[in-house]
Every structure is written in structure tokens, then in C-alpha cells.
Design a protein that fits this description.
Layout lengths: L1 H11 L18 E2 L7 E7 L8 E6 L9 E3 L12 E2 L5 E8 L8 E8 L9 E3 L1 E2 L2 E2 L13 E7 L8 E6 L8 E6 L1 E2 L2 E2 L5 E7 L1 E7 L8 E6 L5 E3 L12 E2 L6 E7 L8 E6 L9 E4 L1 E2 L2 E2 L5 E2 L6 E7 L8 E6 L4 E4 L12 E2 L8 E7 L6 E9 L5 E3 L7 E7 L2 E2 L5 E4 L4 E4 L6 E9 L3 E6 L5 E3 L19 H11 L22 H11 L12
Antiparallel strand pairs: 1-40, 2-3, 3-4, 4-5, 6-7, 7-8, 9-10, 11-12, 12-13, 13-16, 14-15, 17-18, 18-19, 19-20, 21-22, 22-23, 23-26, 24-25, 27-28, 28-29, 29-30, 31-39, 32-38, 33-37, 34-35, 34-38, 36-37, 39-40
Helix pairs in contact: 1-2, 2-3
Length: about 525
């Protein structure tokens, strides 16, 4: 009799559509750091201490002040306003990035240093992570100084570990330099670069991207006083001369890559700046079968000191939105409507928090909407695989041809959502990862505190235990199996809480059954 009733629920159950706010942030930040006078420039999100919660690193100084670098260590979903880690050295630092280059499960912090006193070149820094604690003084310091505003982790040689690329040069005084790659050899990051561009530039950004979808990472540089350039990865080497460069020159400050139009190829987003005579517009360029177009298909109506362009699916509709920042300006969000964008922002932060925006990153600090997912691929002889989402929370494991790989056999990018393996799968790949539908937005600011805008999207439906996006009888089946110890827990766990009690038990099953009989709708509990 119970099975008959349950079958009827499955066929005739009420369907509740999953909906999200289009702009899931308040216009004023919800969190401000205590530190506000260090000229914050770069920021990065990763789990520094291995407790499962994302932490926030901030690099400081820019060209204004010799300042320490900071990290705010998440405490069970609560972000402290005071830095829990402070570097012992103080430099004119540019941007930073976290990455586990030695495959021990703990990410290191790499920092680009822009200038030295007197505006000369400075040394790059890397702070080792020793069992969840960043060392206070960097132990990886190359012997040769360079001007570097930004650096990034990527697998240049497809061997399954992270190499470090640095954008170099100082555009204001035309100190042009070769861009660099420091290769990782069996967990040891070389202090002498193994690759240098043949041309010299004044670059402010660098990004790894498989622009031509041939299965390896190419390297793009954003030049402030010249064209954007991409150096192609040919499998056995990366060309030292650019394989493509943008025909137009602008005062470009920042860039990002992601599939905006759904054709599989990564498109390009850029921020231009008027400081040195540029257009000051945010721009989007289509990728036409492996190379970006030379003319943007979209640009912002506004101009100014564009400093940041980032791509993220903020409204959870399956396409990437554009998030931008300016010096002495606001955070602007342009929503993607089936590949089209308004020339005016769909959301802007409050003018009360006008600031010199430098970097924008995303992560679910309280993990309330985090899910575990897996993606399957036909191997096709490739070592590089992009997940269906960006700004992931972590990689749990990777399976190739049915065997679980050791952590030293692959590396990943949380921001871009790719995994690169040191072996060539023959048949299949399955990647187990964590992802959130409710990612918060952290912003580093040159002139005041670091911000966090908490995402107002809950990220799940109360009672939707199987995370299908709708309420039906299958959720009852799922809950019953979980409570009997015969099935997995809901993902996220609180999605199984239908009565708002912040717990999961038999009362939630009864509440769901009554809902399908015409009772009250499931409710979200105040469970933070």
C-alpha cells in the first residue's frame, strides 16, 4: 500500500521551480576587513589550513607603500575581520594567487612584486604552506628581479603539476621585459625561468587558457601599452613569439576567459583604462574556432579607469556574467542574456563604497550551498579537462580509465575549473569536485578595506533532498533511504530539512507528505 501511494506522489507530485535572484548581492558590502591602509591589490581564495572552508589571501602595497601580505582564515564559515596571517616582509606587491604546487594538499601563496624602492625591479615571492600554515617569510625567491604586477599557476608542460607564469614589465616608465614561466620539476619550483617570451612588454595581467581546445594550456598576456598576446602551447613547447595578438591596442589592465556564447570555445573579457590614453571601456570578444576576434562584439557604455574584468555565472542560469571594477569607481555586473549584454550594468554597488577596485574573486565562505558533483569525459588522448562550471570549491578525486589517481598526478585551477593530468587516459575520465550555487564576492581595494558581498541566494530548495531543482515524491524516497542508512545524505545537507528545524529526521518526511496532500510549503530554516 505504501509503495502504491509513493508511486502516486512521484507521478502527481507538485513541481516547484528553482529560482535565483538575478543579482544576488546587496549593494553595500556585508564584510569589511579591519586593515584598510595597506593598498590592497590582489586577492585569492582557497582552503589554506585544510579545514574545508575557503580562506582569503590579500597582497598589498601596489606602487604606493611597502606593505605586508595578509590572509583571513575562515573559522567554520565565519570570516574574521582581522587577518590571521601577516607576512614578515613588506614590499610593493601586486597580485597574488594560491596554488598547491607541491601536491601536499595545502596551497602555497605566490605574490608578484611590482616595484622596488626607486621604481626598480623586485623579486617574486612564494610563501610555502607547511601543514596548513603559511610561512611568514617567503622561502622561494628567484635570484633575478623583475617588475611583475600579476602571476598565475598553470600546467605549462602537461605533467600534472603547477608551473608559475609571471607577467612582467613596468608600462608607466616603459621598462619592458620578457614574460616568464618557472617550471615545476617533481614538486620543486625552479628559481630560473624555463621559458621567456622573445618580445619584451609592459604587461599587467596573465592567464592560462586552452584557447584553441587542443588539450593543453596556452598563455595570454594583457599588455598595458600594446596588444593582448597569446602564446600557443604546441604540446611539446610553448612558442616564445605570440601565435595571436589583438590588432587593436588599448590601455588594457585586466582580462578573463570563459565560454560566453555556449559554443565551447573560451571567449575573452577585458578591462581598459583611460589613464594612459585608452578607451576605458569593458569589452567582450568572441572566440572564432580557436582565436579571439579582433573586434569586440560588446563594450560598455561607460568609460574610465577600468581595472578588473571577471566572468562568473552569478544568476545560475548556465551562462557567464561579466563582473567589472574601476579605480575610484563601483563594482558593476552585466548579466548574460543568451549571449547578449546590456551596455549599462544590471547591478552596481553603492556609491557609498566608491573605491579603487583591484581584484574580484568568488567563493562560498559559509559553504551553505556547496555540492559534490562529478563530470565524465571520453578521454580522446587529452590530459586537460574543463569542468562545466568555474570558480569551484575544490577537487575531491580524479579517476582515469577506472583508476583513482594520486594527488601528485594531477593539478587544477579553482578559478577556471580545469584539471590537468600527468598521464594520458586512454578511455575515460571522471572528476569529482565541489561547487556552490551561492558564491560570495570578495574585492580588494587600493584605497580602503577589503570587501565581501555575501551571496543572498540560498542555493537550494527546502525539502529538495535529491537536489533536482523541484519538489516531488522522489525527495521522500531519498529522505527515507538516507534516514534508514540505505542512501547518501542530501547535498547540500540542509536541503533535506523541509520543516525549517535545521535538522533532518522523520518529521521532515511527514512534512513533505503533508505538503503533497495540500499542506504548507517547506520552509528554509535560519540555520547559520
Amino acid at each position: 500500500m505504501k509503495n502504491t501511494i509513493l508511486s502516486t506522489w512521484i507521478v502527481l507530485s507538485c513541481m516547484a521551480s528553482l529560482s535565483y535572484s538575478q543579482t544576488p548581492f546587496n549593494i553595500v558590502p556585508d564584510w569589511l576587513s579591519v586593515e584598510d591602509s595597506y593598498y590592497g591589490t590582489g586577492c585569492g581564495i582557497d582552503d589554506i589550513n585544510g579545514d574545508g572552508y575557503p580562506d582569503l589571501a590579500v597582497s598589498n602595497g601596489n606602487d604606493m607603500l611597502q606593505a605586508p601580505n595578509l590572509a583571513y582564515i575562515n573559522s567554520g564559515g565565519n570570516m574574521p575581520n582581522t587577518a590571521g596571517w601577516v607576512s614578515s616582509n613588506s614590499l610593493y606587491s601586486g597580485h597574488c594567487e594560491l596554488g598547491d604546487y607541491d601536491s601536499d594538499g595545502f596551497p602555497e601563496l605566490a605574490v608578484a612584486n611590482y616595484i622596488a624602492p626607486g621604481w626598480g625591479p623586485e623579486l617574486l615571492n612564494l610563501y610555502e604552506n607547511i601543514n596548513g600554515v603559511l610561512e611568514s617569510s617567503p622561502s622561494w625567491v628567484p635570484p633575478d628581479s623583475v617588475h611583475s604586477f600579476r602571476l598565475t599557476w598553470g600546467d605549462a608542460d602537461s605533467d600534472g603539476d603547477l608551473d608559475l607564469a609571471a607577467a612582467t614589465g613596468e608600462p608607466y616608465y616603459s621598462s619592458l621585459e620578457s614574460n616568464l614561466i618557472f617550471y615545476n620539476q617533481d614538486g620543486i619550483l625552479q628559481t630560473e625561468p624555463g621559458w621567456a617570451s622573445a618580445d619584451s612588454d609592459g604587461c599587467l595581467d596573465v592567464h592560462w587558457v586552452d584557447i584553441d581546445l587542443d588539450g593543453d594550456l596556452d598563455l595570454a598576456f594583457c599588455e598595458s601599452i600594446g596588444p593582448i598576446k597569446i602564446y600557443f602551447n604546441y604540446g611539446d613547447s610553448i612558442g616564445t613569439n605570440p601565435g595571436w595578438q589583438l590588432s587593436e591596442s588599448d590601455n588594457y589592465n585586466s582580462m578573463d576567459f570563459g565560454d560566453i556564447d555556449g559554443d565551447g570555445y573560451p571567449d575573452m573579457a577585458v578591462a581598459a583604462n583611460t589613464q594612459s590614453g585608452g578607451t576605458g571601456r569593458f569589452k567582450l570578444f568572441h572566440n572564432s574556432s580557436g582565436i579571439p576576434d579582433n573586434q569586440p562584439f560588446w563594450q560598455s557604455a561607460s568609460t574610465g579607469y577600468g581595472s578588473e574584468a571577471a566572468l562568473s555565472d552569478l544568476d545560475n542560469d548556465g551562462d557567464l556574467d561579466l563582473i567589472c571594477g574601476r579605480w575610484w569607481g563601483l563594482i558593476d555586473i552585466y548579466l548574460n542574456n543568451n549571449g547578449a549584454f546590456n551596455s549599462q550594468p544590471d547591478w552596481s554597488s553603492s556609491s557609498e563604497y566608491n573605491s579603487v577596485v583591484e581584484n574580484i574573486v568568488f567563493g562560498d565562505f559559509n559553504r551553505r550551498a556547496e555540492r559534490r558533483r562529478s563530470a565524465r569525459y571520453d578521454a580522446s588522448g587529452k590530459r586537460l579537462y574543463y569542468l562545466p562550471v568555474r570558480q569551484i570549491a575544490g577537487i575531491d578525486s580524479v579517476m582515469a580509465d577506472g583508476a583513482i589517481l594520486e594527488i601528485g598526478q594531477y593539478c587544477w585551477s579553482l578559478w577556471d575549473g580545469w584539471v590537468s593530468m600527468g598521464i594520458t587516459p586512454l578511455d575515460s575520465v571522471r572528476i569529482f569536485y565541489r561547487y556552490s550555487r551561492s558564491r560570495d564576492m570578495a574585492v580588494s581595494n587600493w584605497d580602503r578595506e577589503t570587501y565581501i558581498f555575501y551571496n543572498t541566494t540560498v542555493g537550494y530548495i527546502a525539502g529538495d533532498a535529491n537536489d533536482s531543482g523541484t519538489l516531488n515524491g522522489l525527495d521522500v524516497v531519498y529522505l527515507v533511504a538516507y534516514l534508514k542508512g540505505e542512501g547518501p545524505a542530501p547535498e547540500p545537507w540542509l536541503s533535506g530539512d523541509s520543516n525549517g528545524s535545521c535538522d533532518i529526521n522523520g518529521l521532515d518526511v511527514i512534512f513533505l507528505v503533508n505538503y503533497f496532500k495540500g499542506g504548507p510549503e517547506p520552509v528554509l530554516g535560519d540555520c547559520d
